[in-house]
Amino acid sequence: MQKRLIVTIDGPSGAGKSTVSKILAARLGLTYIDTGAMYRCVAWEARRQGIAPDDEPGLEELCRRLKIEFQWTPAGNRVFCNGTEVTEAIRTPEMDMLASAVSRVPAVRRALVQRQRQMGESGRVILEGRDAGTVIFPDAELKIYLDADPEERGRRRHREQQQRGTAMPLAEVVAEIKKRDHNDSTRAHSPLQAAPDARVIDTSGMDIDQVAAAITSLIEEVDSHGN
Ligand code: DC
Fold first, then answer.
1. Residue 133 in this model has a pLDDT that exceeds 90
2. How far is the CA of 135 from the centre of ligand 1 (A)?
3. How far is CA 138 from CA 6, 17, 131, in A?
4. 86 falls within a domain
5. Does residue 226 sit within a domain?
6. Distances (CA, A) of 100 to 9, 37, 38, 53, 108
7. For residue 181, with 0-12 CB atoms within 10 Å meaning exposed, 13-18 middle and 19 or more buried, which class applies?
8. 129 C-alpha vs ligand 1 centroid, how far in Å?
9. Is 15 contained in some domain?
């Protein structure tokens, strides 16, 4: 049996978490768990059902019934919500803000954290999110906290939006990033923060290959312990 390897990658939006997590998962044969996509699914389904982001009992019930599935394809990770593909639909600027809003709700966090633990528990996984190393797996074998200055993160998000054809003006993207940072790091429950034992990497001046190489060495180091 292979030994357990849980790698958590936390940090604010646009720090490069998703891109680097996908590269590392493919390179090292780890299962990639995109915890942010799960909050986006709750947001998408809440909007579809007309449930307000502050209606905690409504969201709790929604989470109980919500089926979230990930499907791997060579073209990327596809996401399904109660059987409907939402891969693109959960990435709009509207869903950015709504996901941030529902992620403040304690009942939503409880429901998703429980699922995330089940998904990761026994395996060799890389979990990407805001609370992966602080709340979901405080005993992870390796915790990474990726950061970058807000302007740089705004430029990266803007480029992604341009590729999807849904770009807002750059200044607005930066302003939204700052607003989301504020929401995510000042909320009462599981705010965005680095675990005390996380390795903090500032990706501002780095390209994605450099970030991936730095984390690969850390993973290999941890994974070879005790072998
Ligand atoms: O990583 P992302 O942008 O897809 O995340 C969407 C929102 O969900 C983001 O505003 C923060 C929230 N989130 C969270 O609170 N905890 C997580 N583990 C992942 C995301």
1. yes
2. 13
3. 10, 18, 9
4. yes
5. no
6. 18, 11, 11, 10, 11
7. middle
8. 6
9. yes
By alpha-carbon position, which residue is closest to atom 18 of ligand 1?
129
Look at residue 57 and tell me whether its pLDDT is greater than 90: yes
Going by alpha carbons, the residue nearest to atom 13 of ligand 1 is 36
Mention every residue, 6+ apart, whose C-beta is less than 8 A from residue 87: 76, 77, 78, 79
**Residue 226 clears pLDDT 70, i.e. is over it:** no
Looking at ligand 1, which atom is closest to the CA of residue 99? 7
**Helix intervals (H) in 148-224:** 150-164, 170-186, 208-224
Atom of ligand 1 nearest to the CA of 10: 18
Q: What is the mean pLDDT of residues 199-223?
A: 94
**Which residue from 97, 165, 122 is spatially nearest to 5, judged by alpha carbons?**
122
Pocket of ligand 1 (CB under 6 A): 13, 35-37, 39-40, 99-100, 103, 129-132, 180, 184
The predicted structure's pLDDT at residue 227: 61
Domain-embedded: residue 227: no
**pLDDT score for 184:** 84
114 lies in which domain range? Answer: 5-221
Tally of domains in the chain: 1
Q: Any idea what the CATH number is for the domain that residue 14 is in?
A: 3.40.50.300
pLDDT tens digits for range 24-42:
999 999 999 999 999 999 9
Pairing of strands 199-202, 142-147: parallel
